[in-house]
Amino acid sequence: MSEIEAIDTDQAWNAFAARDRSFDGRFVVAVRTTKIYCKPSCPARHPKRENVTFHPNADSARAAGFRACLRCTPDEVGRDRVAVARAIARLKATDEMLGLEALAAHVGYAPHHFHRLFKRATGVTPAAYARGLKAGRAADALGRDTCVTAAIYEAGYSAPSRFYEDGAKRLGMSPSAWRAGGAGVTIRWTIADTSLGRMLIAATDKGLCRISFDEDETALLARFPKAEIAPGDAALADLAARVVASVESPARDQDLPIDVQGTAFQEAIWQALRRIPPGETRSYAELAAAIGKAGAVRAAGTACGANPVAVVVPCHRVTRGDGSPGGYAYGSERKAALLRRERDG
Question: Is residue 120 classed exposed, middle or buried when 0-12, 13-18 and 19+ CB atoms within 10 A define those classes?
């Protein structure tokens, strides 16, 4: 099968008709009557469908005798991707916190424009991406070093105070606790009854760290082997009541604090999940495209499966591309019930 034949033409046309920016770079649209090719989000007036063909990239369209649209400049999509890749490589190669202007100058873009395209491609801003890299280096260093201060400086922080302001917040626990595998962190838990079954609810002093159906405290011991696992207190009882309310009325935003962590990709997916309006669904492909990673459909599904706080981060709002429910860690019946309650308000 050729690359052109591999394109889902119905999906491509729908994306073009909707001017969906998330499909830019996945294919180009060639118009037979004008001999011009465009990116899917081109703002120009749309031609008739029978005059359109789809090509996997600009090189293929040019080889077929088409020229680039001067309005949407489809060739710039490839240039943008190269710029983002160069910026990421630059961030990974240095311990310094590069400012937006310096990073944009490195790849030859205006700062504000580069800020927008970087976030569209990665799901986070350049500054957030850099902080994530630093926190990751800190986590690795804390796992190797017995000296917390040495690990903090090795990760690229100018002073321990900067780590506590930035990295510790991201890690969700103190650096000493991280180095010791969670030792010294207290996680309180309770089991709550809901109309969808018994639910484990656990939290640190920063927020909810585990919400799951059909689990008990032994699951926490497996996930946090060196933390202190303790019964819930009054503060957790209040949180638990709000979590239960989220199950019974998932369309209502309970604004619950969470203390979870993941890779930069996972966190971007979890943020995208929380932006899906109650009662609506997105496919795994749409979710990946929403963070600028259109090709990472399988990874998006894996990130949904790694979601540690059910309902609060609503991975139940994701379905397969054909509209079928798809998987859910806690069963298809619960997934359907949550969506039904959201739609019913």
Answer: middle
Strand 186-194 with 52-55, pairing: unpaired
The predicted model scores a pTM of 0.54
315 is catalytic: yes
CATH 1.10.10.10, the chain: domain bounds:
185-345
Nearest to 188 by CA among 202, 209, 174, 172: 202
36-58: per-residue pLDDT in tens? 999 998 989 999 999 999 998 88
Whether 38 is a known active-site residue: answer yes
Provide CATH code, domain 3-74. Answer: 3.40.10.10
Rounded-to-integer distance, Cα 179 and Cα 218, Å: 23
Tens of pLDDT, residues 238-294? 899 999 998 988 777 667 888 887 777 888 898 889 888 888 899 999 898 888 888
Closest CA to 56 of 78, 27, 35, 24: 27
279: tokens are 């009662």
Which listed residue (42, 72, 304, 315) is catalytic?
A: 315
How far is residue 273's CA from residue 69's CA, in Å, rounded to a whole number? 34
Pick the catalytic residue: 38, 69, 72, 304? 38
Assign a CATH topology to domain 75-180.
Arc Repressor Mutant, subunit A (1.10.10)
